[in-house]
């Protein structure tokens, strides 16, 4: 493909983007290019092209050249604030223009007076496909050569870029915005279509094939973004990517994440404690021990390479070796660790990074130097977005930088060895560093920088390690070997504390350990209150591994098996045989104990690509839960047949999610009875409902006439009762299941069940909350299904209660005016 020569689009002074007083342009977040400080009043076409975007305010335009280069020309800085004053667009989207054609006229005098600057960046936004050579400088005239674009790829992408352009505007619903993992999933989704897909926001754009480019758009919760595509399957690609983003991708406020809610750092005066440093809680807990420092330094890398061919070969080998290592780690990892490793692997495949690195090698740099030069600006671009969570993802990029350079330089990354009980200190801890340590020797973590939602914070919580972050430079003065008390719950690191304080902390740690050991020792006995009321304590499960953990912790069965684990993250629905095998494996692990299997709860924030659920303005109120099963009867019937195949036949009960009316329960019962008849089963298979809507709670007496049991999902019940979307970061922090309105709905559900002799359980988050358990029992709950790890603690808590005291406590809670008042009351009750 021939090179493309762009001509000067406006007269003025040409200069490098570094001269632009705006980080978005100067740091090349949107792409590389050049800038012109104009002296004329008209913007002209720099090449033969198609107009693919004109900002409504007229201050910016996007073009696609015949070779497929996408050009963004942004007249002035912050000129969007002029709301169109001073700009007269002369073309519209879809117009074809020839080199030199006028595109936009502008009032230069007005811009000079009212805009922050008139300097105009001309950018190549798909720089993964084009390199820039020979840029003009100094005084330039319209029509003179400006810069030359050299195509890096073949014709495949250019072909995909042709054809009609399809777009769709959506609002990002992800509670934490589009960060590394969602960006990688979007890129993977787009690979399945013959189309070039872009995300566009505020005049900036990025190919979805570049997860890092997507990150630099700063797409936070509530951002409006345009999904755009060209190519043979453009329309289908736009709909698929839009649907994926609108689904929330499991990144809502209810995502399973071990890290606690972020705690905002208080002002210095609020944490000023003599002899202590304050920070931000990343994972709660208490630890005492000597300090051990983990200090990482960047490798020195040679700027000059040993020849283009040799450096490219070295880069490919190192990248292959690191990819293999990440794949191997992901294969044996679980939960948060696996998600983090997969995010690193996705970034390692980022086409923008790869092309930038190869371009650096082509200029004579070593592979290590080129890789560092490619990836560091991307990390800085994330920090420059101003979004704290995206800034924390820059740590992952620095981690990836170090890992690949270590492979290139042949540096052995041997993890340091620490004495048992060490409090690990670091200036900034990276995920691979923590994963490489023998964490059995680490009692807690304190970090100078970092944030409470970083991947290290999530890993620390997963490992059960108290962790404090964002302590500040004062941490640097703490010498190795210094004895400290890490009180992560109070966000304090006590330095060289007196012996009496150490003794008190150690006593608290010992008491907690003793309570835990006692709870585990007694955890396998049936659970009763102090005065003999039987309370079943079950576990919520999502896999065989969860079932194994539940058994080790004394769970009496499973009050909730989330069957979504079989249906998500795959291209086709599991068949009946696969479902039967998985349900049977979990039933076998429970060794005959009760297993309540929830029917598929999908839709809303849990999408499946093979279920074409149209994008919904409010997925939480749309096609989800049993509504999906009733709309797709073949999926419902296959799942019911699989459950009915589990042996022994009496072990399984079936629970229907998201019930809002008795008619929905009756429809499922009709299908279940028909299948039982086909299989020759004459016993009545227990069929219960999950109470997650206020409608179900208020009509619990009606449901209990035909349902065999009621189980309350407090997470969704809280969301719907308080009219607060738990996927909306603006309101999610106010969601609390101990709100009196939610407690009253729980009480109403228990009364409705008791009216017909049905038991009521709780399988939502409140069942794992020690502050909530006494209230739930006082309201009439007789079954609790909690997280497997906390089953012994919940059993021990219940064993210390009396029913009259719990009932009185529950009535007092119902009279409170807020969730905060209820929690205050609960703390007093527990004291």
Automatic annotation (TrEMBL):
Output one GO BP term: phosphoenolpyruvate-dependent sugar phosphotransferase system
Q: Kindly give the NCBIfam families that the UniProt entry links to this protein.
A: PTBA, PTS_HPr_family, PTS_I_fam
List its EC numbers. Answer: 2.7.3.9
Where the record annotates domain HPr, the positions are 165-252
Q: Which family does it belong to?
A: Belongs to the PEP-utilizing enzyme family.
Name by which UniProt lists this protein: phosphoenolpyruvate--protein phosphotransferase
Can you state which reaction this protein catalyses?
L-histidyl-[protein] + phosphoenolpyruvate = N(pros)-phospho-L-histidyl-[protein] + pyruvate
Query: What InterPro entries does the annotation carry?
Result: Dup_hybrid_motif, HPr-like, HPr-like_sf, PEP-util_enz_mobile_dom, PEP-utilizing_PTS_enzyme, PEP_util_C, PEP_util_CS, Phosphohistidine_dom_sf
> Which key words are in the record?
Cytoplasm, Kinase, Magnesium, Metal-binding, Phosphotransferase system, Sugar transport, Transferase, Transport
Q: Which cofactor does it need?
A: Mg(2+)
**Which residues belong to any copy of the PTS EIIA type-1 domain?**
22-126
Places the protein is found: Cytoplasm
Per the record, a Pfam family?
PTS-HPr
Q: What is its main location?
A: cytoplasm
Per its UniProt entry, what is the enzyme's top EC class, as one word? transferase
GO MF terms listed in the record are:
kinase activity; metal ion binding; phosphoenolpyruvate-protein phosphotransferase activity
GO CC annotation terms, alphabetical: cytoplasm
Q: Which domain of life is it from?
A: Bacteria
